[in-house]
Amino acid sequence: MTEQATSKVAMDKIVSLCRRRGFIFPSSEIYGGLSSCWDYGPLGVELKRNVREAWWRMMVQERDDMVGIETSILMHPQVWVASGHVKAFHDPLVECKCCHVRWRGDEIQTAACPTCGGELTAPQQFNLMFKTFMGPVEDHASVTYLRPETAQGMFVNFENVVNTTRRRLPFGIAQMGKSFRNEITTGNFIFRSREFEQMEIEYFVKPGTEQKWFEYWLEERFNWYVRLGIKKEHLKLREHCKEELAHYARGCFDVNYLFPMGWAELEGIASRGDYDLKQHSTCSGKGLDYLDEETKERYVPYVIEPSAGVDRSVLAFLCDAYDEDIAEGEQRVVLRFHPLLAPVKVAILPLSKKEHLAALTKEVYADLRKSIVVQYDDTQSIGRRYRRQDEIGTPFCVTVDFQSLEDKTVTIRERDRMDQIRVPIAELKKTLQAKLSGEDFLVLPPGGKFWKTAEITEKQSVKGA
Ligand code: GAP
């Protein structure tokens, strides 16, 4: 069996569900769409916010050694000279001499054009940064770039953060935000686009301790995906071989996910040494070294960088949650999202539209919506409404029925097991909040590890594959 065959869902099913239920639309669709740009619809925007919030909460707010920042997308053009992006952020581009379609030279398997079989040009280096102009004059002096990564905003603020927070090593700076790359080829839905979002950490450590922290972050980031519901067997770590390493990296692992098109990068975790701080120090003339209060030594910290994509994470969470099974004799599509990620947490459903039932249901709805993301739905049969909520991944449905009018109880139906319990309305909020806290869903054994770092290279990394 090929690796591709083990992915349980085809990409067109995900694309079609996202389109049909309002997760993701092609950008500027009424004008025919814009290649590789996507708009998040009402459910997509909630899912994406939940992914960002889960990252921010677990990587920044729940840690003592992390601070967040948000830097501008447009930066001084010298930043990109210092970082090496002007000189080295290239992909090899080849063009068909016949049909003039352009390809990434390292991604096509044949010597001829995959579209028409025509002869290809020799590869040229194509810089992936989007160029633009600052101000009203479009000349060489006003050229700047849309940032291709959020990372540099953190390096150039290293001194500001140290001075204002009095942080001691090891500590990290985290940020999330838009990045732009003029990719030669895009595709696989939101996997590779020209405008996307990143969630990045620059973790500063004392030189000599970087290997320990590199291994720590490999484990921490791998487990983040598993904690949020991605099956461990759909993830693996892949070590970059020397030829693959980015210009700044001394070592790098990808967290790969088994996407519908096969194993592909979800996140990169790089050991960047002191490359960035040294480069910015040289190019700006500002010393970016660090005074170790304990030893009174001055040195430039080393950096471990876990760099994830928001859109790729959204795609991986969608693919992993997707399932089809049989419910009440009918085939259903269900997104088995972790409750932290589900765009709607609870659906509130009156069994019928009868007036007195609707009044009680609306009371329940009004009370819950103050603290939980809920959706009211009274159209079509109850079975259809359950199917609709299953398809968007809503973990719980609360049904108000005729018994509710008599004894002030309602049913809670759980999405995955489809079992139902009856609870007093007075205890509904507390019961739902406990269920939604995620404890029922956490896959990680308490304090447990999925693998030991020593095992990575042997079992889960496919060197250079
Ligand atoms: N600062 C390091 C850095 O940017 P990268 O491996 O080039 O490293 C990190 O990018 C992550 O950003 C990737 O693992 C991926 O999740 C996301 N990413 C990169 N390019 C992307 C694109 N064109 N579309 C969507 N996501 C992208």
Give the key terms.
31% helix; BirA Bifunctional Protein, domain 2; 14 helices; alpha+beta; binds glycyl-adenosine-5'-phosphate; 2 domains; Rossmann fold; 465 residues; 5-stranded mixed beta sheet; 7-stranded mixed beta sheet; disordered N terminus; globular; disordered C terminus
Commentary on this structure:
By secondary structure, the protein is an alpha+beta fold. It folds into two domains: 236 residues, BirA Bifunctional Protein, domain 2 (2-Layer Sandwich), CATH 3.30.930; 97 residues, Rossmann fold (3-Layer(aba) Sandwich). Helices cover 31% and strands 26% of the residues. The N terminus and C terminus are likely disordered. The structure holds glycyl-adenosine-5'-phosphate (GAP). Glycyl-adenosine-5'-phosphate binds next to β10, β13, β16 and α9.
Helix/strand-derived category reads: alpha+beta
**Judging by the overall fold, what is the CATH architecture of the largest domain?**
2-Layer Sandwich
* Coarse shape: globular
Q: Kindly, what is the distance between the CA atoms of the first and last residues, rounded to a whole number of angstroms?
A: 17 Å
Pick out the low-confidence regions. Answer: 1-5, 442-465
The portion of residues assigned to helices is: 25-40%
**CATH topological fold name of the largest domain:** BirA Bifunctional Protein, domain 2
Strand order of the largest sheet: 3-9-10-16-13-12-11
How would you sum up the major sheet? 7 strands, mixed
Supply the number of structural domains.
2
- Integer average pLDDT: 90
